[in-house]
Write a structure and sequence with these properties.
The chain has 831 residues and is α/β, with parallel strands linked by helices. Helix content is 48%, strand content 14%. It has 34 helices and 23 strands. Strands 1, 2, 5, 6, 9, 10, 11, 12, 16 and 17 form a 10-stranded mixed beta sheet that branches. Strands 20-19-18-21-22-23 form a 6-stranded parallel beta sheet, sandwiched between helices. It has a 3-stranded antiparallel beta sheet with strand order 13-15-14.
């Protein structure tokens, strides 16, 4: 490891080589680029050594397929993993450079949007941190999801030009590993003893890989996130053509095809958008599988033992084309028969489900897939035919049951069904989520293949979400229990011994206040809003969606505002309500929710009578870097989805690990948090999942009854349409109608009174500082279960069949997994 002096000298040498300037002449951008260049040299050597070691040992490798990898910034994380953060900070300080300023120069990588992508990024961190040989497979989006601007309270979408400098600081372009992806055309079948399928008249697109190193923590393990970019090179003949039409057509084709990797989640409300999204999904899996097979197996080597060498894991349904594409490669390129290929495919592929809502499960129109991916459609059709035959002959299913379970029915391909049929394991991501899958969403599949279904509750990269983002808290923890929790986060439980230590609780309070001051400084500099760091910081930061119920939290704030206006002397602890998140392009109601929150913020923050007691802020273009500031500063974690709708959530885990107290419904990981910390250290309210399911199935709920019987609700809802806000009277009509005319599908009004009561109890608890910080410490002490290390031990043993005997994960396998779980074997839906 470099000393401080050696690092400083190396940095100055690289500065001269790269910029040919004195340090006084350089900008922070220059200095950032010099630092990254220096670190790339260190990383490259370790990366190469790790690859050679993995190849010589022939270790089984995991490939994690996901359309999102929400990485955040990597500079500080990489410095920490290399054990160079303090050395670098001190060396740069000697040169008059603040490392924090350079960290701010790095843009958040535009490779994801929400929880799905952050989970994938956390899991890559955990794989490397635990010494697992694993790789991510994704797409290199030129413009990310989008850059959110809030203008007059509305969300405005702009391209996220995070690659405006031409490349990503940490990527390595691998043009020699590029592969061709085929779209369209037709399939010619040759029957000459052996049936051959020849793809003709197709359009071909170049998939160029860009590798991003994923560093393990202090262990010399560096895995790879491989991102593919759609690129087309115009031939010299075209470029030199005298025919302007020929050249123009070629340029148009280049633009259209390279759009495949322009942005994440193109709007699929149009046919063009659907085609683009379908192309994206197939492009990802075909490019990945081709390069994996090429790198692992020579032309002469058999693929019969593929599942012994690799595990392919698909994160939600977007990469489900892994299944038919792997079948195509095995049969068409390696001459396997159907039964061999299908056996290998199912033994190699596993699938994580992330939604319990049937309407959210991905589906594709048969005609679209058939035209764009003709050979893939043939394979899906055959998988479906054989599966339907099995249902009839071996499981005695009737026609209706077979139609319901079929992969293809009513001219639609059901990707979740394909993922289940083509995988050897299917997991939910929280105990209650898995229960719902088994009992409702995937009940028919569970009944015929119980051995496939398992639960792996999500986890987070605690070395980022605790060590990196909250160094003051980390230092306190180390002073109390040592640093063993860095490798074995279950040791955080030792903090329970200090729950009665007033000095520790006082220090915990001091650290929280300092983190709140950092956040308050950010609010002031970016939004011109002054907030009180001694106020309760309540954060509701996540993707904007009706089932996540930002609207419920907004209605609570409106009610609190009304109470303060009615009684200016109302004794409450000042509160700062923090929102953040993006709505999908075409999600009209969610975009109106953003407008509602911002309109509410404008009214409250400019009202002299209340602005010292409550403040509301909406974070523009919320991203990982903002989360790293807000989560350590938050007192309260708002986790209030309609029960039975949130698969798990991981924001709740990050807040908990940083000492925030959860207020939430019994849904997703909230259930397991409650069982770990005890009901006295969390605020639970609202309907249970079983009650929500019963209302959906049997009826019995009328939102208008609540509107008529609860004057608070009537006053708030009327405020949406009666001129209370200085907007057009129909501005929030979509919410008014959703609550009343459409009978409040997500039970916001049904849970409103319970939420108010829970918020009041929370505010009362906060006034007792000793009790509050005991609760906070209890949450931190129980958060080790939600480390991604534990989750990966479960994946490694229960799903991927990895040998852990010479690996850090062996500890988890032998110790932690045998300890008491935050749930028993009961079905949460019945309790």
């Amino acid at each position: 490891m470099l000393t401080q002096h050696e690092f400083k000298e190396a940095y100055l040498d690289r500065l001269k080589t790269l910029k040919a300037r004195n340090i006084e002449e350089t900008s922070n951008k220059d200095r950032f680029e010099v630092l990254v260049s220096l670190l790339r040299d260190i990383i490259s050597e370790k990366w190469l050594n790790h690859k050679l070691k993995a190849k010589s040992e022939q270790t089984k490798q995991v490939y994690y397929f996901s359309v999102e990898f929400l990485l955040g910034r990597l500079l500080e994380s990489n410095l920490m993993s290399l054990h160079l953060r303090d050395t670098c900070q001190e060396a740069l300080a000697d040169l008059g450079i603040d490392l924090h300023d350079l960290i701010q120069e790095e843009p958040d990588a535009g490779l994801g949007n929400g929880g799905l992508g952050r989970l994938a990024a956390c899991y890559l961190d955990c794989m490397a941190g635990l010494g697992l040989i694993g790789n991510g497979c994704g797409l290199r989006y030129r413009y990310g999801f989008f850059k959110q601007e809030i203008r007059d309270g509305y969300q405005i979408e702009h391209p996220d030009d995070w690659l405006k400098n031409g490349s990503y600081a940490w990527e390595y372009r691998r043009e020699d590993d590029a592969v061709k992806i085929k779209f369209g055309g037709n399939i010619r079948v040759i029957k000459n003893g052996v049936v051959k399928f020849i793809h003709e008249n197709f359009e071909e697109i170049n998939a160029v890989p860009y590798d991003v190193p994923v560093l393990g923590y202090h262990n010399d393990v560096i895995n790879t996130l491989r991102l593919f970019s759609a690129e087309m090179n115009l031939s010299n003949e075209v470029c030199n053509s005298l025919d302007p039409n020929h050249c123009a057509n070629a340029l148009e084709s280049k633009h259209i095809n390279e759009c495949i990797t322009d942005c994440l989640y193109p709007d699929d409300n149009t046919t063009e958008g659907k085609i683009l999204r379908l192309k994206q999904e197939y492009f990802l899996v075909s490019a990945s599988l081709q390069t994996i097979i090429k790198s692992h197996f020579s032309a002469e080597e058999s693929l019969e033992n593929l599942s012994d060498k690799v595990a392919f894991h698909i994160n939600d349904t977007h990469p489900t084309f892994v299944i038919p594409e792997l079948m195509r490669i095995l049969m068409d390129e390696h001459n396997m028969n159907w039964d061999e290929a299908f056996k290998i495919t199912t033994k190699t592929v596993s699938y994580t489900n992330h939604t319990v809502m049937p309407e959210a499960l991905e589906k594709w129109d048969v005609g679209l897939v058939k035209n764009l991916l003709p050979r893939i459609y043939m394979i899906i059709e055959e998988i479906n035919a054989r599966f339907c035959k099995e249902l009839y002959e071996h499981h005695n299913k009737n026609v209706q049951q077979i139609t319901d379970m079929a992969i293809i029915s009513n001219n639609t391909i059901k990707m979740a069904h394909l993922a289940i049929v083509g995988s050897h394991k299917v997991n939910g991501v929280a105990k209650i989520h898995t229960d719902i899958l088994k009992a409702h969403t995937m009940k028919d599949f569970y009944e015929i293949s119980k051995q496939k279904f398992t639960n792996v509750t999500n986890g987070i990269a605690h070395r980022r979400w605790l060590l990196m983002v909250n160094p003051l808290l980390t230092d306190l923890i180390i002073s109390l229990i040592g640093n063993g929790f860095i490798k074995r986060p279950d040791e955080l439980s030792l903090l329970k011994n200090y729950s009665g230590d007033k000095e520790v609780l006082e220090e915990l309070k001091r650290i929280k206040h300092i983190n709140k001051m950092y956040a308050a400084k950010f609010f002031k500099s970016h939004y011109g809003l002054t907030v009180d760091p001694s106020s309760i910081f309540s954060a509701h930061i996540k993707r904007i969606h009706s089932y996540k119920r930002q609207s419920l939290h907004a209605l609570y704030i409106m009610d609190l505002y009304n109470r303060l206006k009615d009684n200016p002397n109302l004794d409450i602890t000042p509160q700062t309500f923090i929102f953040g998140g993006k709505s999908a392009f075409s999600y009209f109601k969610a975009k109106k929710t953003i407008k509602l929150i911002n309109t509410l913020a404008e009214k409250i923050n400019n009202d002299i009578a209340v602005r010292d007691k409550i403040k509301v802020i909406f974070l523009e273009n919320y991203n990982v870097s903002q989360a790293e500031l807000i989560i350590p500063a938050s007192d309260v974690s708002i986790q209030i989805p309609t029960a039975g709708h949130e698969a798990c959530g991981t924001g709740n885990m990050k807040f908990m690990m940083n000492g925030a107290i959860t207020i939430g419904t019994l849904d997703g990981a909230n259930v397991e948090i409650k069982n770990l910390v005890g009901p006295e250290n969390i605020f639970i309210f609202g309907l249970k999942a079983s009650q929500v399911l019963d209302y959906h199935r049997f009826g019995g709920y009328n939102s208008y009854d609540i509107y008529q019987s609860d004057p608070r609700v009537k006053r708030i809802l009327d405020s949406l349409v009666n001129g209370f806000f200085k907007v057009h009277h129909d501005e929030f009509r979509v919410h008014y109608d959703a609550f009343l005319k459409n009978n409040d599908h997500f039970f916001v009004l049904k849970d409103f009174a319970s939420y108010i009561d829970s918020q009041n109890a929370l505010e009362k608890a906060y006034k007792d500082e000793n009790k509050w910080y005991q609760m906070s410490l209890n949450n931190i002490a129980n958060s080790g279960y939600f480390a991604g290390d534990r989750a990966f031990a479960q994946y490694a043993t229960d799903i991927w069949d990895l040998d852990l005997t010479d690996n850090s994960l062996h500890y988890w396998q032998q110790s932690y997994l045998n300890q008491k779980k935050p749930y028993s074997n009961e079905n949460f839906l019945l309790n």
